[in-house]
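2024-03-11 09:14:02 INFO worker-7 job=invfold-0412 stage=load source=structure_tokens
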């Protein structure tokens, strides 16, 4: 989730002022296009403002409803509705549709508006379109009949036929807008509700040859609709859309169905000015029903295909992780047995030697060596426990003060060799508070600060400098030192389990590995830049949202990590 400022503690954010203004020209443009599909007074086979209103309401909430109602009422005269006193009434049904769609899907069903899976797709279809559309059509046609704008004998014919038309246009226009543009809007902080968007998987993206294949199918659809009567051969479009759904999945099917809408409805509407000459034919109703079902079935098929491919990809990734874990477990058992036995053998050997000597000073020397071995053994056991704890526990979400935690970890290292030589600087931590896993952040800092002390600059004035900054929508928490640095050929290996830079290294080789694994658990990453002989910078990249500090607080601005 991107870094954003919030005006309160809720999940809503403050939107730009122009989100109140922009909807009106968008709705008016949709009305002008829809007039080309006009059938009779007040009625069109396709009505685009419904799709635009639904989409903008999902993005920006009820603030779009006044502009939507104003457009619907003010444009009533363009549809041949001459009774000015009823214009305010004519705008109510479609406004009710948008309001109910937002209420049912976004608020009650808590739908994910970018429609990431089959469940959300079906929720959107039923609660976001079908239920509100039925209410809208009964309201609209009843008002027209009571006002005398439509003959009573055409009530059901117009209601059903235009109902299918409204369903097709709303479904096929809103789908690509919601699915493809919602992640883009979220990235630019233009959604009313904060959403953790699951971006399109690499397995759902089309390659160059697949784009060429999709373009070929689109050309075939154009040829069919150019030379064959749509009312008689509409099912051929269904065959092509079904092929796209099974071949490429959800995203391509959304694009294909929207293209079908353009070439089968919008283009003929523009050509004939008043829409299809065959509208009065009884077969048109069957065509509308078949086309509506075509769009629904192909979209659901495409969604299922994409979900299966994504599940397969995740399963393969999980298998790779399990194979890696098995390999690491073998290495872990071997290395742990070796690193545990070495200090124990050293202690036992020193105890045996002490029994053979009667010189007091030698006893003290032996005790010092035993103590060092015991501390080394204790440190290794602590790292093993950290490794186990990180593996078996779930991530926590709690307020953590980065500056306080850093000082606590640094003070815990006060008995480390060279601690008193280090200048510790944390004034550059500008974003103190995070909502994260305190124990894992402590693991990460413990290992990074310990290494910075261990490999400090032993000829000059060693320092450790901590800082934070926002970069590429992430909070970057950096730990910089002027120590030995890392050799270029070793940089790619330092996070490997049990990796030691040289045979002289006293550590277990688990520290940086544990830090990296702990970072993964909190949806973070550790980046490193280093110049051998000059120092290193380890940076923890946290995904976060900046929240305002409480009134009167002297603390820095808290940062929320998802």
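2024-03-11 09:14:09 INFO worker-7 stage=emit residues=562
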């Amino acid at each position: 989730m991107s870094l954003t400022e919030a005006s309160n503690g809720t999940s809503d954010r403050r939107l730009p002022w122009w989100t109140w203004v922009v909807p009106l020209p968008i709705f008016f443009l949709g009305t002008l296009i829809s007039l080309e599909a006009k059938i009779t007074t007040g009625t069109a086979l396709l009505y685009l403002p419904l799709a635009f209103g639904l989409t903008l309401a999902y993005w920006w909430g009820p603030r779009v409803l006044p502009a939507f109602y104003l457009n619907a009422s003010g444009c009533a005269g363009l549809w041949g509705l001459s009774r000015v006193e009823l214009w305010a009434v004519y705008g109510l049904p479609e406004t009710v549709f948008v309001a109910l769609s937002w209420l049912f899907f976004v608020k009650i069903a808590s739908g994910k508006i970018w429609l990431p899976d089959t469940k959300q797709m079906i929720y959107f279809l039923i609660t976001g379109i079908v239920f509100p559309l039925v209410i809208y059509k009964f309201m609209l046609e009843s008002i027209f009949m009571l006002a005398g704008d439509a003959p009573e004998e055409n009530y059901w014919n117009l209601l059903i036929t235009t109902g299918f038309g409204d369903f097709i246009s709303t479904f096929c226009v809103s789908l690509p807008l919601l699915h493809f543009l919602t992640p883009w809007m979220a990235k630019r902080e233009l959604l009313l509700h904060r959403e953790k968007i699951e971006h399109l998987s690499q397995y759902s993206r089309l390659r160059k040859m697949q784009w060429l294949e999709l373009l070929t199918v689109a050309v075939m659809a154009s040829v069919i609709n150019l030379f064959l009567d749509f009312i008689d051969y509409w099912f051929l479009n269904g065959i092509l859309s079904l092929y796209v759904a099974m071949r490429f999945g959800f995203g391509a099917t959304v694009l294909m169905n929207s293209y079908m809408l353009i070439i089968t409805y919008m283009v003929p509407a523009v050509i004939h000015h008043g829409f299809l000459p065959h509208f009065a034919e009884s077969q048109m109703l069957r065509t509308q029903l078949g086309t509506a079902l075509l769009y629904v079935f192909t979209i659901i098929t495409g969604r299922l295909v994409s979900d299966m491919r994504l599940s397969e990809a995740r399963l393969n990734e999980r298998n790779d992780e399990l194979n890696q874990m098995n390999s690491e477990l073998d290495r872990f058992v071997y290395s742990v047995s070796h690193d545990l036995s070495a200090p124990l053998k050293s202690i036992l050997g020193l105890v045996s030697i002490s029994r053979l000597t009667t010189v007091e000073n030698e006893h003290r020397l032996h005790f010092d060596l035993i103590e060092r071995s015991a501390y080394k053994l204790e440190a290794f056991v602590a790292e093993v426990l950290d490794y186990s704890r990180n593996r078996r526990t779930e991530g926590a979400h709690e307020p953590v003060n980065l500056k306080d935690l850093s000082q606590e970890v640094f003070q815990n290292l006060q008995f480390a060799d060279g601690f008193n030589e280090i200048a510790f600087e944390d004034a550059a931590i500008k974003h103190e508070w995070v909502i994260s896993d305190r124990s894992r952040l402590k693991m990460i800092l413990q290992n990074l600060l310990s290494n910075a002390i261990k490999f400090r600059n032993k000829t000059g004035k060693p320092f450790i400098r901590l800082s934070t900054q926002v970069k590429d929508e992430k909070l970057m928490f950096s730990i910089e030192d002027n120590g030995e640095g890392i050799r270029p050929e070793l940089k790619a290996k330092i996070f490997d389990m049990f990796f030691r830079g040289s045979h002289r290294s006293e550590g277990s080789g688990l520290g940086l590995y544990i830090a990296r694994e702990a970072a993964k658990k909190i949806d973070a990453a550790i980046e490193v830049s280093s110049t051998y002989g000059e120092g290193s910078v380890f940076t923890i990249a946290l995904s976060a949202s900046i929240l305002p500090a409480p009134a009167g607080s002297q603390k820095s601005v808290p940062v929320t990590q998802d």
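2024-03-11 09:14:09 INFO worker-7 stage=report msg="The longest strand covers residues 463-471."
2024-03-11 09:14:10 INFO worker-7 job finished
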